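Handout, section 4.2: multi-component inputs.
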Amino acid sequence: GDSVTQMEGPVTLSEEAFLTINCTYTATGYPSLFWYVQYPGEGLQLLLKATKADDKGSNKGFEATYRKETTSFHLEKGSVQVSDSAVYFCALSDGGGSTLGRLYFGRGTQLTVWP
Amino acid sequence: ETGVTQTPRHLVMGMTNKKSLKCEQHLGHNAMYWYKQSAKKPLELMFVYNFKEQTENNSVPSRFSPECPNSSHLFLHLHTLQPEDSALYLCASSQEVMGRNQPQHFGDGTRLSIL
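Output:
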């Protein structure tokens, strides 16, 4: 079945460091891929998405490219800020048949950025 | 402001109490979802509603009873809960259930503690 695997956390970085959070997926169809972010005390917010192979999603300095050949959707940011400290979730949706638009989430990666 | 409002934000209840969680979305979406987020566990999809009709019950115990009177409102009625039910309960909505490109919009959740 469909699933998402993302790197175990926690990830701790200094401000202005480069960030990569790895995400790989397994899907039977042609899924859409998402990154969500959860700030402390809040729900999940959509950070970016990509709907087909080679698409690049971007928002707030974060980027992720939909790589069908490696079934990956790694999240990157060139220079993190303290305000980026949060939990990041990779997710996929294939929207077909019995899954009825179900989102499959990874376990989440805690990011802490120090000043 | 995500467009999805959950109340209450925090709830403490005894195992014999009956309470309800409320979710309201102001986005004009047709699909609504309940998720359970427990510490150190993946996000768990509980229920899916499409145009007020329940389309998925993900093997949730009967002590959780959802209600969707219209496309904008979703309730989760709680009765005789167990300590392991303590978690963050998240509501989400999307434009349509079958849409693979449709991101879900989340509320900030209700933090539930069972004494």
